[in-house]
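Re: that backbone. Tokens:
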């Protein structure tokens, strides 16, 4: 085997390790969701999903502002410099987590003045603990990806999932239905803590790194924020467009309808998992391709990854159709008659989101965050108009939700337009 073939094979193995890791994380969430539904009901599942969506938003904020910027900065650096910047990023992250905990305490105190939150206090505490630990877990994962140690990141995830499985068995046997949500997040938190303590790769990086002081940390954060602020706003808008539907349904229709929506999302999650796994593992490779060869070769790689994702998606959608028409879901999915309309929404939404995410990579890798922000604002304007006018104004909630898909298609059209324009300009320049 030639050295080129060995490198290609190693890259493929690293990508597959990342996808397997994403599948395991998805399976973890799916298993926890099944436990919530088994022990309790759809309403409790709606609360669990609401906390998970908020937690995902917070983790995404740290990921966009710190983890992704760290990856872009150290992707082509030496091993020593990678460790130094990784430790500096962790220090910045620690300050952010302390601020998050302080803000959460203030919010809880404020809510307790006007509302009785005693039944939700334990959920808030365990959910916040899970969020903080997940932020650190994701930082270590991104460091592993950027240093081409995806298999080691997979090892940490396996430890997390293994601990979680053992603890979830205790939850099913011992925890009453009314305490199921806080019990699940306590299980998540303890499992994450064990995995982080067992992560030798990151422990070694921390011990071997050189701490350069808070002045250096401030300089690093300023460089992150210079580019990351646009990406952060874009991420917030993308979250509002895609993930804010759960909080929207929670406040408009209550936890049961939010539970239907989240259960449909759970059924379609494997498509999202494969997509996100490939995105996570491919970003450093795409970045290096862009820096070495420019826009056109990078765009060709983006299309290759997109085709791989859709090959799996078509198979999975076919399996969903078989399960639907064979009556399998009516038998095993709680209240499937209500869930199926949200499932149709999610199939279309995830399929369109795949195009958006991959064409968005074209601009992420080339660090065009201002353009991403403008496109995100335009897409969200379409979505928000549909939700407010059709969903609330005309009281057609289900139809209003499809405006999210209209927003996705708007973003895709703009991505394709600007990508073709920039590649044409590069060819003309040559």
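Recovered sequence:
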């Amino acid at each position: 085997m030639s050295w080129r073939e060995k490198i290609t094979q190693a890259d493929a193995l690293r990508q597959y390790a990342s996808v397997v890791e994403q599948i395991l994380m998805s399976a973890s969430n799916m298993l926890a969701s099944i436990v919530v539904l088994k022990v309790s009901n759809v309403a409790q599942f709606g609360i669990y999903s609401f906390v998970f969506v908020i937690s995902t938003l917070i983790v995404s904020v740290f990921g966009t502002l710190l983890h992704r910027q760290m990856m872009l900065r150290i992707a082509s650096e030496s091993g020593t410099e990678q460790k130094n910047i990784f430790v500096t990023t962790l220090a910045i992250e620690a300050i952010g987590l302390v601020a998050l905990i302080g803000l959460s305490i203030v919010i809880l105190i404020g809510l307790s003045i006007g509302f009785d939150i005693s039944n939700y206090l334990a959920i808030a505490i365990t959910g916040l603990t899970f969020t903080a630990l997940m932020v650190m877990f994701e930082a270590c994962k991104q460091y592993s990806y950027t240093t081409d140690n995806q298999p080691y990141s997979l090892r940490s995830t396996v430890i997390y999932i293994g601990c979680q499985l053992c603890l979830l068995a205790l939850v099913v046997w011992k925890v009453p239905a009314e305490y199921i949500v806080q019990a699940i997040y306590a299980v998540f938190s303890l499992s994450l803590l064990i995995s982080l303590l067992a992560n030798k790769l990151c422990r070694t990086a921390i011990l071997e790194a050189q701490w350069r002081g808070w002045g250096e940390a401030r300089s690093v954060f300023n460089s992150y924020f210079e580019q990351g602020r646009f990406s952060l706003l874009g991420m917030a808008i993308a979250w509002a467009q895609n993930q804010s539907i759960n909080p929207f349904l929670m406040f408009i229709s209550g936890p049961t309808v939010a539970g239907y929506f989240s259960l449909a999302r759970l059924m379609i999650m494997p498509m999202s998992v494969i997509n996100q796994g490939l995105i996570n593992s491919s970003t450093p490779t795409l970045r290096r391709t862009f820096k070495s060869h420019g826009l056109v070769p990078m765009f060709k790689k983006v299309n290759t990854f997109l085709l791989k994702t859709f090959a799996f998606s078509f198979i999975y959608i076919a399996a969903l159709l078989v399960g639907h028409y064979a009556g399998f879901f009516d038998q095993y999915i709680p209240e499937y008659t209500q869930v199926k309309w949200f499932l149709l929404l999610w199939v279309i939404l995830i399929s369109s989101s795949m195009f958006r995410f991959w064409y968005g990579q074209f601009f992420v890798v080339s660090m065009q965050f201002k353009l991403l922000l403008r496109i995100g604002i335009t897409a969200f304007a379409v979505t928000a108009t549909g939700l407010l006018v059709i969903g609330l104004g005309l009281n057609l909630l289900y139809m209003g939700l499809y405006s999210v898909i209209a927003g996705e298609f708007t973003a895709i059209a703009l991505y394709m337009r600007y990508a073709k324009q920039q590649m044409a300009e590069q060819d003309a320049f040559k």
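The radius of gyration is 22 Å. Residues 1-11 have pLDDT under 50 and may be disordered.
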